[in-house]
Design a protein that fits this description.
Elements lengths: L10 E7 L6 E7 L6 H12 L7 H8 L1 H23 L13 H50 L11 H12 L12 H29 L14 H11 L6 H6 L7 H27 L13 H18 L1 H14 L7 H24 L3 H11 L1 H17 L5 H31 L2
Antiparallel strand pairs: 1-2
Helix pairs in contact: 1-9, 2-3, 2-7, 2-9, 3-7, 3-9, 3-14, 4-5, 4-10, 4-11, 4-12, 4-13, 4-14, 5-12, 6-9, 6-10, 7-13, 7-15, 11-12, 13-15, 14-15
Length: 432
């Protein structure tokens, strides 16, 4: 996902003299982009306001006020680590010498660090594909249920459960991954953004209408079960994480020194948006809030939102997998566009989609998919790697308080990931 917004940064060479001597040190200086702070902020906000938004209300039904605390804490920590990751792109002289996540891992821990970061990132991106297919399957199943109950003309559709619809969604997204790179799928991304905006506005409007009409149907619990708090935490990690693209976003800016302000503004507004959307939906539907909140809407709004969600997810599906395809191509040393290369690319992309679809069919539901993803790979990419890396690269420039806070965030991410994984496994085993 690192090339999602920044494009390929072109390396230049800058000469740095020391002490007036004749010896020069050559350092790679990465050219600045042209994006404004507003454009960068909108790109970041679009990545954050994704499918995870639909599971926020469910966390309030699970953990009550503790979930509100988790939302704020995870949002603040994720914003801080986004700034840390941007700082890791620079050396001690303030020169930008790195432009992707794996380069930071290599700078800190050599080849092993690069491999660990790359494997974690690729696993995360494949997990995003799985979650997208689970969401599409859930919404298509919801659409069929509504259509079948209210219009006999849809009776020809197969009476299928969520897993069958997930399989059909896997086939439906197959053509999108063969379009090409980010430049060629930008039209899909633009359309998906407009659809996402429509989903947010419609969801808030429906919730407000129901609250005004029937009053609030739920109260936030002050004493939730401790076993469900990690589940909420892991869903929030999913909802606040897009750190794989932060290096590219920072590189795309005409004034990258403003990136810290962009991160602060976007994450603050994101916390408010998610809290508003989730709380309104929870108060509208109370303890009966579903893992995908659109399932609580009345038939016609539910049908409209479900179609919009499915369309948005289908359009967004190829975006996180593009770096995976590039990594596979690089791994086999292919730099050509010959017919044989194109055939290999097509086979690899098809295999990746089928892998994501096979895993998605086995996942019980969307809430579990978000929970596992938020517990397995995202704690590393969002909390552990950025804080450990920034301390290792810039410890002398950081104060003792910042170093201590960085290690606290890393530990919180690790402990939250372990607790979230255990809680999500319990939910699967117990069939909750």
């Amino acid at each position: 996902m690192e090339a999602a917004c920044g494009g390929g940064a072109e390396s230049l060479m800058a000469t740095s003299s020391s002490g007036g001597g004749a010896e020069s040190l050559l350092k790679p200086v990465l050219r600045k982009g042209r994006a404004t702070a507003l454009q960068t902020g909108l790109n970041m906000l679009n990545e954050l306001e994704g499918a995870g938004l639909l599971g926020i209300a469910y966390t309030f039904a699970l953990a009550g006020w503790a979930s509100v605390g988790c939302l704020v804490a995870v949002g603040l920590m994720a914003g801080y680590t986004g700034y840390c990751l941007a700082l890791c792109m620079y050396d001690g002289d303030g020169i930008r010498v790195r432009d992707n996540y794996k380069a930071v891992g290599r700078a800190c821990f050599g080849t092993r660090g690069e491999v660990v970061v790359l494997l974690t990132q690729m696993s995360n991106l494949l997990s995003v594909g799985v979650v997208y297919l689970v969401l599409v399957g859930s919404t298509l199943s919801s659409v069929y249920t509504i259509a079948d109950q209210h219009d006999p003309m849809w009776s020809w559709l197969p009476s299928a459960n969520r897993r069958v619809w997930t399989s059909l969604a896997t086939l439906a997204v197959m053509p999108t991954v063969h379009i090409g790179g980010y430049r060629k799928v930008s039209a899909l991304s633009a359309a998906g953004t407009l659809i996402l905006l429509a989903i947010v506005i419609t969801g808030i409007s429906i919730s407000v209408r129901d609250i005004v009409k029937d009053g609030s149907r739920g109260e936030l619990s002050a004493t939730p079960s401790l076993s469900v708090i990690p589940v909420s935490y892991s869903i929030y990690v999913f909802a606040f994480s897009c750190h794989g693209i932060f290096p590219a976003l920072e590189a795309s800016m005409a004034h990258p020194e403003r990136f810290g302000c962009v991160v602060s503004t976007v994450f603050a507004s994101n916390i408010v948006t998610k809290a508003l959307f989730g709380l309104l939906c929870f108060f509208a539907f109370g303890p009966a809030t579903e893992k995908v909140v659109t399932s609580n809407f009345s038939p016609m709004p539910r049908l409209i939102i479900s179609v919009l969600v499915a369309a948005n997810t289908l359009l967004s599906f190829p975006l996180p997998l593009i770096p995976v395809f590039k990594a596979l191509k690089s791994a086999r040393g292919d730099t050509s566009d010959a017919p044989g290369s194109a055939m290999c690319n097509a086979c690899e992309r098809t295999a990746v989609v089928l892998l994501c679809g096979s895993v998605a069919v086995l996942v019980p539901d969307f809430g579990i998919a978000m929970g596992f993803m938020g517990s397995l790979t995202l704690p590393f990419l969002t909390f552990i790697f950025p804080t450990v890396f920034v301390v290792r690269l810039h410890r002398q420039r950081l104060g003792a308080v910042i170093v201590a806070w960085s290690y606290f965030v890393a530990c919180a991410g690790a402990l939250g990931g372990v607790a979230g994984m255990y809680a999500n496994i319990r939910l699967v085993v117990d069939g909750s």
